[in-house]
Structure formats: structure tokens, C-alpha cells
Amino acid sequence: MKSQNSTKSMKVTYLAAMISSSLMGSHAFAQESNTEAENLDEIKMESIQVTGSRVARDGYDTPAPITLMTQEDINAYAPGSVAEFVNTMPSVTGSTTASTSSGSLSSGASGIAALNLRALGVGRTLVLFDGQRNVVSASTGEVDTNTFPQSLIKNVEIVTGGASSVYGSDAVSGVVNFILDKEYVGFKSQVEYGETTYGDHENGKVVLTYGSELAGGDGHLLLSGEYYSANGIHGTTRDWAEQGFTGMINPDTSEGSPFYLVDTGIGISNYTPGGLIASGPLEGTYFGVDGAVNQLAYGAVSGQWMQGGDWEYTTSGMLGTNSLAADEERKNLFARFSYMVGGAELYMQGSYAEYEGLSYYINPTSKGVTIYADNAYLPSSVSSQMADLGLASFSLNTSNVDMPASGANNVRDTTRIVLGGNGEFRLSDKFFTWDAYYQYGKTKSDEHMTGTYNTSRLDLATDAIVDPDSGEVVCRSTLTDPSNGCIPLNRLGVGVGSDEALSYVLGQPRRIQEFVQDVAAVNFSTGDIEGWAGPISIAFGAEYRHEQMDGDVDPQYSSGWKYGNYKVTEGSYNVKEAYVETLIPLMDDLDFNGAVRYTDYSTSGGVTTWKTGLTYRPIEDATFRLTRSRDIRAPNLSELYATGTARSNSVTINGASVPMIQNLQGNPTVAPEEADSWGAGVILRPSFIENFSATIDYYEVEIDGIISFVTADDTAEYCVEYGVQKYCDNMIYDASGTLQTINLLYDNLDSMTARGVDYDVTYDFDMGDIFDGGLGGVKLRFLATNYLENIIDNGVTAIDSAGSNAGSTPDWKYRASVSYNLDDMTFNITARGVSDGVLNNSYIECTTNCPVSSAPNYTINDNSVDGKTFFDFYAAKTFTFAEDTDAEFYVSIRNFFNTDPAMVAYPASQGSENRPGYLETNRGLYDVLGREFKLGVRVNM
Are the beta carbons of 592 and 614 closer than 8 angstroms? Predict the structure, then answer.
């Protein structure tokens, strides 16, 4: 990974590359031709396909809504990865990115970019590359889209609505299909550099792509290489995040006061950067720079929070310790060779992708640290006070500012090899097309924690005394075990811990995991069956898939650490599937589309999925569509086989933050989820407005048997607040009554209901059609999703999260763009954002005369969250340097007006350890980096 010091050299490197690439001149590498392979592709486009690439562009004339985004759309956003662009789509929300997944330490999912359609979960969104599955990037089942060859992605198709009968398991919310440009001919390169308006998050990209026909057009070769890197933003934050805006249990407990208080000037009350005595006669004494003794000025205290007082100082040890942006380095190599043999195209395809990401979670806190009266580092003033009071010890709470923030530096490399073919044949008098392929994929994941403390070593090092014989400071344990290697650590202050002692207590837990996927599939289709109202099309096929994982962990890293108590998860399963799909014209302008798939899992047995759909065009200007489907999501490897993920955390019990270890385990008996989906929509293409089209689609999804676990916070709440015994049984206490562990288990627990409406409006026109002499062409595009309902019923509560801007489903998420093309120039302005919302639909907003609060209907003084709109600008101009060589120079300004995100308080996270270090916003909905600039050049030959 690069350091921040590499910024200047990085800029020089990219600028030099941009200049040199723009001056290159050469002959074209190949010429366009009409080959047998191209003719075959035209045949395929007319027949029933199950990859999503067959359907009409922009989602028109298909029962299931499809949003098509072209390479031109992608280029206008100038994303570091295609996933960045896809996440701006209104129907895609709640996705994980390299920065938002920084807290997924023990699971190994930190750094993964995984897509989430309609906020139904990344595990319920099937991600395909050119219609084929990809090997997972973690045991939790996510496919990291960073592993795709970004430069060869021609289109991105987002199929919303259940599609398990067509694509298989996991397509509950739909499919995101990255379409490969298999026919590319020529040479192209791209060089790009970017940074924010604050001079950070420096990033750059270099791409080389080559495509050529061989053997007179019978063969085709594709080669592509890409390098991308970005400096992270660590240990700092933006001005808007320094206001102390959060939610706390109201310290004003008078009758009629709201239960929750949302305001500014709120910070931590029970620890400081260098340690705070949080209870007893010395309460409020804290240790500052070089161990200086101070007295904390308390504000209005409630739980671990307070308003006023020294809130800025207490929180300063946590502020900015959660990375604002991750360090990223990505390398991709891709090759594809195809050849026509006897009318059939045979191909070999291989790719290698390596991703390294570094992000920090938070500074590791410690509470209840026992400091004895004879501690060698105890300031004399405090020692004297303890002697006067007869205190043998006190309890210290600290955010350990002398220790580095805990995080993950994960490396993943993914190898994917595909052998396949496609062609045509006649059976009797019927014409068929076929395709078949075998795919081998392997992901190797090196999950490496940054420095985090070992609990037992830290306890030994903290208990430092003066050796009565030598007069040196030593660990107390060394007196009885001289060879234990303990080095004493001063924890009473800021800047007092020695490097040697920190090296002793800190370690970097590590786990190596390997995921292997084998897929074999064959598909047939024909549109050559005569029907009473037109040709009937049918597609059928079968697929076999085997998934397995294994790994290795040094036993010393399996337990005893603050974070990253890695355990090996090993297991495998196989899937056998067969399907049939048909398109039947029932009458003029009324078509039926149906599919059924039988799937047999080695772990849970057989299950049948299906779909039915109708499209009806009563007039040329309008088409109506209706779909109904039964879909499934099968358990992933972690949900089946996880041996226990021991993660240090804290939960809220009676308003107080209580530390514990949460232990999440797999369940081999867990069954697939089942979902029933409805969809109804209208497609408008008025004949009196040329090149105008619009779709409006309603969806409703009901999922039963959701594979999940009750979180540690919810387990504590359901036990303490609701008195549900089965959750109390999962809370393990020691003999003294101190909470030690909360056991969590995957199971088919909940049900979920989601409803919403998707909108897609497109209008293309020439300026000359609007007024005489007008030049250039304009394209208007408006996409929006109105989230009407999103309810998870866990048997205790059923809260609708639609309209909550603290989650993933605001009332509205939208994207509007205007593109203007004039000869060799392109301009684009995009507005994207979300509507105003609330923190929680179950909260009752009031400031006085509030009713009595009871879970989950807590009263709150301010339940609102502002909506925001972010504007992006893009401009490009193409210069021709030779007959077959041109260079397109472009500039992209994301968040043009440097709009700050909305502030989000998260009052329910009272005892959460990570909340004080996290941003006071929802980075899944709002931009957090500020204005971003990108300059680049694309050269085509």
C-alpha cells in the first residue's frame, strides 16, 4: 500500500502518463468486419436467454423491469470502480464498500464492495459477470465487484424483481449483470488522477485494453490490464463531524420530557484519551499529556454520554479513528480467446484480480481496568490521595490514545477460468441455439488485522510495580515468572506508553482463507415453435455448482484479542439445478412469460422456484406488465459452518455500556429463505413525443424464514426490556454476575415485507428540433425509487424502516441527469440524492408533555433527518491526432457544491463502543468526502 508521503510522486507519475498517452499515434490494430460469430450473436439476441442480455434495451417490453446503464453513462461519472457508479442507482441502496465495511473485522469481510438491490440485503442480490456466477470473496457470500475487469464492461443491467427461477438462488431482489464487451476491436488506454477539495484521497487509474480479430475473423482475442490505487483518509475528519451531534438518553428525567435527546455538544462521559477514574472517591480524575493529573468537568450525564462540560476532550481520542476512506490498491488482468469451429464458437477466458485494502475501525477502548495503589506509574498526587482514602485500587476507563486504531489490511486475489462454447443446430425442422461452459474460480483471502491488543498481555503489562530488589519498573508477574517476557506499560496519560511495551501487548491476528467454486452449465433455446398467436420461444438447461472453503489460523490468533479472534470456517456444498423458461404469445400484443427451476441442495434438499409474467400492449403508446414469482436464497458458507466468530464489543443494558464478547456460530440445519414477489408496471412511449419513454413499476416482496441472527444489542434488549427468556439464555455471566459472552446463532428467524415504486424516464432530442439553428443533442434521464414499506418482523418487534434516513430506505432516492453532446464535446450534469426522513418510524417526537416511553415507541425531541441533493459535473472533449487515433480529455467534479451530508444521531446506539468513533451521518446515503476532482484522458486507436 502507498503511504501519504507518496502523494507528490503519484501526481507526477499520472500527469506524465496522461501526457505521453495523449501524444501516442499509431495505426488501428484491427478493422470492423461481419463475421460468422457476429451473425451468431444476432441470432442469440433474438432468442430466449437466461442471462438478462437478451432483453430490449432500457427495460422496455419485458415482464421484469430492467435498468440499462451504458459505458457512456459510466464514463460520465468517472468512478474508481464500476460499483461506485452502480451504487448511485436509486434501486441500489444499502450496499457495502471498502469504507463502510471497515467494522467487519472478525468476519473477514472488511474492504468488500458488494451490491444491495432494494435494501433487501447483499446476500439476496445476485451479481453476475457476463451472465455467469462468480466465486465469493468471503464466507459471508459477498461477491467483490472490484474483481471484475472494469475496462471491458460494456453495459450494466439491473434486473429488479425476483429472478431465482431464471438465474438460480440469491436472486430474490434481482440481478446486477456486468456485460462484457466481447467484440471489442482496437486498442484503448485510460489514465486518470483525482483528489478531494481538501487535498486528500489521492487516487489514480491506468487501463490498457486490446482487442483483435484473428484468422480472417474466425478468432478473436481480448486482453486487458488495470491498475487503481487510492490513498485513504485516516485519523482525521471533516468540520461538519466535529459538532458533537448525537443522540443520548435525556439526562432530564422530569415528567413530560422526551426519552431521547438529539442535540450538539454531546460527547463521552466515562473515558478520556489517557484514562479516567470513572467511579469511587476519585471519580472525574483523568490523566492527560505526559500523565498530568486533571479534573474532568462533567456536563449533563446520561449513560456513557454527556452534554456540555469537557465533551470535546473526552471524545477527541475517538474522533476520526474510523477511516473516512480506505486505502485501496487494485490490479486486474483479463484475457479471452475465441475461435469459430464448424459453426460453433469455442472460447477460453481467464482473469486474475488482486485487491488490497486498509481501513481502520476505531481506537480500541478499555473499561474497568484495575490500577493498584502500588502501580509504578501512578502520579504521586493520586498515590497520596489513595493512601489518605485507604484505597487499594481504582477502576480506569480509557480510549487508549497511545495505541493505534484497530482495523484490517486485507488482501484478496481471485482467479477465474472459463471454458465454453456456443452455437446452433437443427433438430427435425426446429432451429436451436446452445451454450455451455465450465468455470473454475478461487479466491484466496489474507485477512490481516492492524495492531490490536492481547487482553492477557495487556493485563500483565498494566500491572506495573517497582522491583523491590533492583528498583526498576517491572510487571508484577515477572517477580514470580521472570521468563514471561512481560514489559510494563504506562497507561496513565497521553504519550506515556513506550514503544517496547506497546510491541509486547499488540499483535496482528491473521487468517488465510480459500474459497473455491466449480460451475458447469448447459443451455438450449429455440424460437421456432409455431403458436396460435405467433412463434413460441422456449429455453431449458441445467447447472451444477460446488462451493467449498477452508483456511488456516495460527492457534495464538483464535482467542484472547480485542478484535480479530479468527477461527477457521471449513465446509462445502453442491447444487444441482434444471430449468425451463418459455415465452408464449397468447393473442395480439399479449405475451406470457413463465419459468420453473428445480434446485437440489446437498445440505437442505430440493426446492422449486417459478415465475409468471404478462405483457400487454393495448395501444402502441402503452404497455402493461405483471409478474409473480417464488424465489429463494440459500444459506452461505458462514451461515452453515461458522465455528464461532468471537468479537469484542459492548451492548446497552439499562442505558449503560457493558463490554462483552459476541460469539456468532453457523447452523448446518438452516434452510433456504423463501420469497413471494409481485410486480406491476406500465411502459409509456407516446407516439406524439419522439424518443420519449417512461416506466413505472410497483413491487412487493414477502420473505419468510430469513437467515439471520438476533444481534447482541437486540438480545440484551429483548431479555432486559421484554423479558424473553430464550434471549436471556444466550447471555452468559461469570460467577460474580459480570456479562462475559452473548451467543448468537444463525437460524431461519424473521420475515420481511418490502414495497415500493421504481421510476425510469428518458427523453432524447436534438436542439435543432426545439429551435432553428440549434446545435447538438440532449439526453434527459430520471431514475427514482419510492420506498413505501420495509418491515422486518423478528417475532418481538415489527418496525417499518421505509422513510428512515438512518437506514437504507429513505422515502425517495433519485438520480436525474442532463447530457449534452456537441460534435466532439460532451457535458453532463447529474443530481442525486434522498428525500427528508426520520430516525425511526416508531419514535414519538415531542419536546414537552411527552407520553411515557416504552420500547420500541420511545419519545424523542427531534426525529427528523434532512434530505440532501448532490450535484456532479462532467465535461469531455475529443481530439484527433491521427487518422485512427483520438484522445478524449475529461474532467469530473463530484459533489460540485461541496454539500455536507445530513447529520444522523443514532440515539439507539447508547452503549455501542464504535458509535463515538463513527461519523455522525449515514455514509450509505450521503457523500462524506466533499468535493472530488478527477482529470483523465482516454485514448482510442
Answer: yes
Q: How far apart are CA 561 and CA 571, in angstroms?
A: 25
The pTM score is 0.89
On average, the pLDDT of the chain sits at 89
Instruction: Name which of 213, 223, 209, 167 is nearest 71 in CA terms.
Output: 209
CA distances from 318 to 113, 364, 519 (A): 25, 9, 46
User: All 3 cell numbers of residue 277?
Assistant: 477514574
Cα 230–chain centre separation: 17
Q: How far apart are CA 869 and CA 898, in angstroms?
A: 11
| Closest listed residue to residue 374, CA positions, set 284, 453, 448, 465 | 465
CA 889 and chain centroid, separation: 31
The CA-based dihedral angle spanning residues 477, 483, 488, 489, taken in that order and rounded to the nearest 10 degrees: -100
What residues contact residue 763 under an 8 Å CB cut-off, 6+ apart?
Answer: 689, 691, 692, 693, 779, 780
Burial class (CB in 10 A: 0-12, 13-18, 19+), 5: exposed
User: Are the C-beta atoms of residues 711 and 733 closer than 8 Å to each other?
Assistant: no
Q: Three cell numbers at 614?
A: 404478462
State how beta strands 837-838 and 246-249 pair.
unpaired
Of residues 514 and 59, the one with the higher pLDDT is 514
- pLDDT bin (cut points 50, 70, 90) of residue 55 is very low
Give how far Cα 324 sits from Cα of 78, 653, 671, 841, Å. 20, 30, 38, 28
Contact between residue 524 and residue 491 where contact means Cβ atoms under 8 Å apart: no
Decide if pLDDT at 144 tops 80: yes
**Nine-digit cell string for 365:** 477502548
Residue carrying C-alpha cell 482514602: 389
Residue 30, amino acid: A
Q: What is the pLDDT of residue 16?
A: 34
Give the C-alpha distances (Å, rounded to integers) separating 365 from 481, 494, 645, 648.
28, 14, 20, 10
- DSSP for 332-365 reads EEEEEEEEEETTEEEEEEEEEEEEEEEEEEEPPP
Note whether 871 and 829 are within 8 A (CB): yes
- Give how far Cα 63 sits from Cα of 91, 593, 598, 608, 645, Å: 17, 7, 21, 20, 42
The CA distance from 152 to 223, in Å, is: 9
Q: What's the whole-number mean pLDDT along residues 680-688? A: 95
Q: Which residue from 275, 117, 89 is spatially nearest to 754, judged by alpha carbons?
A: 117
Q: Can you give the pLDDT at residue 53?
A: 28
d(CA 810, CA 831): 16
Identify the pLDDT of residue 45. Answer: 38
Are the CB atoms for 449 and 564 separated by under 8 Å? Answer: yes
Ranges of H-type helices in 70-146: 71-77, 82-86
Grid coordinates standing for 909? 446506539
Q: What is the pLDDT of residue 653?
A: 81
Please give the average per-residue pLDDT across 705-712, as a whole number: 87
Identify which of 147, 156, 164 has the alpha carbon closest to the alpha carbon of residue 53.
156
| Type of residue found at 890 | Y
Report the pLDDT value the prediction gives residue 23, as an integer from 0 to 100.
32
